[in-house]
Amino acid sequence: MKNQTETNTFDAIVVGSGISGGWAAKELTEGGLKTLVLERGGKVEHVTGYTTAFLNPWDFKNRKHLTNKELEERPVQSSHCNAADKHFYVNDKEHPYIQVDPFKWIRGYQVGGRSLTWGRQSYRLSDLDFEANKKDGYGVDWPIRYADLAQWYDYVEDYVGISGSSESIAHLPDGIFLPPIPLNAIEQHLKQKVKEHYSDRVIINGRVANLTQPKKGRGPCMYRNLCSRGCPFAGYFSSNSATLIDAQETGNLTLRANSIVKEVLYDAKTKRAIGIKIIDAISKEEQTFYAKLIFLNASAIATAAILLNSVSPSFPNGLGNSSQQVGHNLMDHIVNEGTYGTFDGLLDKYYEGRSPGTIYIPRFQNINKQTQNPDFVRGYGIQGKGERENWESKATQGFGASLKAQLQTPGKWTISLGGRGEVLPNYENKISLDTQNLDQWGLPLVKVHFKYGDNELAMMEHMTKSSEEILTKAGFKNVGSYRTSPPPGSAVHEMGTARMGNDPKTSVLNKYNQMHDVKNVFITDGSCMTSSACQNPSLTYMALTVRACRYAIDQLKSNQI
Amino acid sequence: MNRRKAIGGILALTGIGIATYTGFNLFYVKSRKGQLHDYKNLVSALVDVIIPATETPGAKQANVQDFVINYMESCSSVKEYNNFFDGLIDLQETCISTYGSNFEKCTLQQQVAIVKDLDSTYEGSGLFSKIRNKISGRPFYTILKALTVEGYCTSELGATQHLVYEPIPARYKAITTIQPNQKAWATK
């Protein structure tokens, strides 16, 4: 029995191996802690696990299309995956949840999680974001400011490798950048026209975690633009290609795949979490692991579900939930379907290689008095991409040799723009557990309640109109938008379900991502976000994770936890 | 073929008609999947008229027929499958009544004439066709042309000989000057 307990006991346990879990694994193992990483999905080895990475279009029997059977298995995920990367997205039938309101919960149950398929856009938050709740009264105040996080952004960016340009925009701070992915001819044109027509907005190179130069033995990017299949060149950052490898090299890492976390165990005497009970995904047997320190990085919805399922006499409503905020304040980013336009000129210009990057229009509403918008608070950014039409998008005439000739030549230049807007924290947007409906492992299904408010809808209308106006002013033709919004969750930026705050009565985590109620539990995935800002959030999760890990290690070493 | 299209078109012109037609489709459309492999010669001949061999290989040599059939059997909706299947049958009927022979056996001139007739009905991206397609699925020729183009441009011969395919560019030159006879990239 003694041996059994010993092999089940670690200094730290990290739940989840996605983008924030990978960082927790790296920082805790490098800090000398024997660390167990629990991942509910199967193993994906760097390089050899990327089974479709080198396949050509014709190697797929149905090209990129999912079969009807695959669509049936993935009614939710299918909007976000194709035949080449579907294995990195869950089978919805095997992993059901309940949409009380429409909400896409896009998931990747495997080692590396969604760090394999993420959009790689990486932007810092600023004090415009950290002070927003306090200023306009939505949600609770963030317990940190930009100055608390700046050095950790530096640290993370330097390790990850973010390509981008320094722009001196106060509300979108510059970082440690590799050379940016350059703009192509149409993107340059748009940048110039925006400069001519607007004083309040600017087009910048998108900041992406693709390596324009080699970094720590990884990369550089080969410009294949097949990132979501996993990159054998480690051309972009993922847990698999970077943090988990460094964690492994310390000798302190134990990675257990196929381990579904059932609950966090709590000891009322010491007021500490003592371990984690898992269900083996394959054998369905339960097993318990013990540690002095626990990091939850299962992603916002899953982490909240674990807390809500961890009930004890001390916490009948879920671990660390004395505030009654666990599972609440669920946010995503509101996105529109996009605005498109074609351009008649620049036909002598083309490009070589396929850019994995984008252009970006940083937030330009409600920055200051001049940009105050009467219809909504906060703001949105716009991502975009320019390219020449090819066979996929070109309108062709006729058939035979003339059709072939049309297919063979590059088409018109096009630009597509898509807004990403801030969603306000709202207690009614939440996840809860349905104890009457259990999954195949006997765990209660997650129920998602989510509705956009007037602020989000006004913002969406504005992002569509302003995108159309920008393209029209820049001389684009056939400018139009799909006047619909994909269901909430489509941005795959779910967050906010265990928010940080100064007051234990209204928040779950303190300024170090430490549970107010349970001092040896830290949460550094999207759950912790007090507001959503409008920037793609992964970079912030990573910086918060490193900061929390350093603090936790200090606390552990000084016997504070 | 024209008769069936006409009925769909007339029904679709009135709001009530659309609802009735849709209701009918939703409740009574049966899957007839599994039959297209028997029509491989016909599909091969059709795709090769749409994309014939020129100085680069044609669709048939690029095995586009296999993709068209695989897609229709495994990926298409039941509605579109039926539109496609009925389209093939109607096409053969037209060939036999007009030329006394099935499409595969027609002369190239006859085949081209038949496809030209079909192509004149091709509906690209008009609002009306978009709404109609959402309700009843794309019509036969629209499906055939779209799959032929996709299948060819993503085939090994189409992508590497008719277009330019680079599996590992290893560079990104954001602005280049187009060369004489510049071919389009096969992939984005």
From TrEMBL, chain A:
According to the UniProt entry, its GO molecular function terms are: flavin adenine dinucleotide binding; oxidoreductase activity, acting on CH-OH group of donors
Which InterPro entries does the record associate with it? FAD/NAD-bd_sf, GMC_OxRdtase_N, GMC_OxRtase_C, P2Ox-like
**UniProt KW keywords:** FAD, Flavoprotein, Oxidoreductase
Q: Which domain of life is it from?
A: Bacteria
Q: Which residues form the Glucose-methanol-choline oxidoreductase C-terminal domain?
A: 425-544
Question: Which residues does the UniProt record annotate as the domain Glucose-methanol-choline oxidoreductase N-terminal?
Answer: 101-335
Q: What is the protein name for this chain?
A: GMC family oxidoreductase
**Which organism was this protein described from?**
Flavobacterium cheongpyeongense
What taxonomic lineage is listed for the species of origin?
A: Bacteria, Pseudomonadati, Bacteroidota, Flavobacteriia, Flavobacteriales
From TrEMBL, chain B:
One Pfam family of this protein, by short name?
Gluconate_2-dh3
Transmembrane feature ranges:
6-29
Keywords attached to this Swiss-Prot or TrEMBL record, sorted alphabetically, are: Membrane, Transmembrane, Transmembrane helix
The protein's name is: Twin-arginine translocation pathway signal protein
